[in-house]
Design a protein that fits this description.
Blueprint lengths: L1 H32 L3 E11 L2 E9 L4 H18 L4 E12 L2 E11 L8 E3 H11 L5
Antiparallel strand pairs: 1-2, 2-4, 3-4, 3-5
Length: 136
């Protein structure tokens, strides 16, 4: 009888610990997003290795937040397609009543592309995850 009681107590404590752990995760996510709400990502294959991304978000602190969201989407897309790199071509940003939108274009490639605005897809996706920015 005593063994059964210990087992029940252990299960109860394990469940309580799991509930507390989930509550801590929710609190951390809220703090990481700081009121930012990320919208869906629309991906368009434009031509060859040229890919367009349309993203939107509410609560951005400025254009850099929505640009970073588009970069995160581009990095994840490159990985999904089996590529390791992306190069930023251009990003157009618009804001209306607190709703930010970006229309970004990137090239994706297996090898490091020429230019100064290149991103390592794996490194960028990991950074986005640590920052709480969703990817594709």
């Amino acid at each position: 009888m005593l063994a059964l009681t210990r087992q029940s107590l252990g299960q109860s404590l394990g469940l309580a610990g799991a509930v507390l752990a989930l509550a801590a995760c929710d609190a951390q996510q809220g703090q990481g997003s700081a009121g930012r709400i990320y919208g869906p990502v629309e991906t368009r294959l434009l031509e060859g290795d040229l890919v367009g991304f349309r993203v939107s978000m509410d609560g951005a602190r400025g254009s850099d937040d929505v640009k970073k969201f588009a970069e995160c989407a581009a990095a994840q897309y490159a990985l999904i397609r089996g590529y390791g790199f992306a190069r930023h071509v251009r990003t157009l940003v618009d804001e209306t009543a607190g709703n930010w939108r970006a229309d970004a274009v990137y090239t994706i490639s297996a090898a490091l592309p020429p230019g100064e605005r290149t991103i390592d897809a794996e490194v960028t996706v990991a950074e986005c995850g640590r920052s709480g920015i969703p990817t594709v």
